[in-house]
Amino acid sequence: MRPKTKPLAFSVHLLTGSGAALALMALVAATKGEWRLMFGWLGIALIVDGIDGPLARKVDTKKNASNWDGTILDLVIDYLTYVFIPAYALIYTGLLPWHLGLMAALVIALTGAMYFADVRMKADDNCFVGFPAVWQMPLLVFLVFDPPVWATLAIIGALALAQYTWLKFIHPMRTARWRPLNLTVTILWVILAGWSIWEAFDPPGPVKAGLLVTSLWLLLVGVVMQAFPERPRAPLSAE
C-alpha cells in the first residue's frame, strides 16, 4: 500500500517545484536580454530555495509526502537556477565574444551537471566540497565590473576546476563556524547585489567595492577556515 500523502507536506514539495516555473521565467527574460528581470526571477527562486528546506523538515516531507524525493527535486531546481540559466545568459550578455561565450557556457553546463551528481559535494561541517556551482553570483559580478575577456575566461576556468577540488566553500546558513559573521556578509552581499541590479549593473563606486569585497569573502572564507581548522576543545576535568 502506498503511504498516504498529507496536503501540507505535499504543498512544500510544490513550493520547491515552483522554482522550475521561476527558472522558466528567468529564461524567458534572458532570451529578451532583460538581465535585470532575469536576476529578479532568480532572486525569488533563491528565496524559495532558502525557505523550503526548513519547511520540509518542519512538516517531515520524508514521512508525510514520501512518494516525492525532495532532495532530487531540489537538485533539479538548483541546477536550473544556479547553472543552466547563468550559462545560457553568459552567451548573450556581451561579456565574451559569442563563440567564447558559447564555449564557456558549455563548460559551465557540463561541469555543473557533474558537480551536482557528486555524492561528495557536502562535508560533515556542512561546507561544500569544491566550488558549489552558484554561477549566478560570478555572472552578476562580471556584469557589474565588465572585466577583460581574458580575466572572465580565467575566472570561469578556475571556478569550473575548483568544483573538483577538496577546497571548502561555506553554506552561509548551515556552516556553524563563524555563522553570524558569514550570514551578515551574505545579507550585505544580497543588498549590494540588488542595488547593482536596480542600477542596471552600474552602481556607485562604494557599492561596487562592497560587492567585490563581500564576493571575495564568501568565495574564500571556507578555504581560510580549512587552512586554519578549529582546535579541539579540551575536555572538562572532573574535580
Overall helicity? 55-70%
Distance between the termini: 57 Å
Task: Give the C-alpha Rg.
Answer: 19 Å
Helix count equals 9
Number of domains: 2
Order of helices and strands: HHHHHEHHEHH
How would the global form be characterised? Answer: globular
* pLDDT averaged residue by residue: 90
How many beta-strand runs? 2
Main sheet, how many strands, which sense, barrel? 2 strands, antiparallel
Ranges where pLDDT stays below 50 over 5 or more residues in a row are none
Content-based structural category: mainly alpha
Beta-strand percentage range: under 5%
- Major sheet: order of its strands? 1-2
Write a concise synopsis of the structure shown.
By secondary structure, the protein is mainly alpha-helical. The chain has two domains: 1-92; 98-227, no CATH class.
Question: What keyword list fits this structure?
Answer:
single chain, 239 residues, mainly alpha, two-stranded antiparallel sheet
Describe the protein in words:
- This protein is mainly alpha-helical.
- The chain has two domains: 1-92; 98-227, no CATH class.
- The protein has helices at residues 7-31, 35-59, 61-64, 70-92, 98-116, 136-145, 149-162, 179-198, 205-227, and strands spanning 128-129, 168-169.
- The chain has a two-stranded antiparallel ribbon with strand order 1-2.
- The N and C termini lie far apart (57 Å).
- The model has no long low-confidence stretch (mean pLDDT 90).
Write the layout of secondary structure elements.
Blueprint: H1 7-31, H2 35-59, H3 61-64, H4 70-92, H5 98-116, E1 128-129, H6 136-145, H7 149-162, E2 168-169, H8 179-198, H9 205-227
Antiparallel strand pairs: 1-2
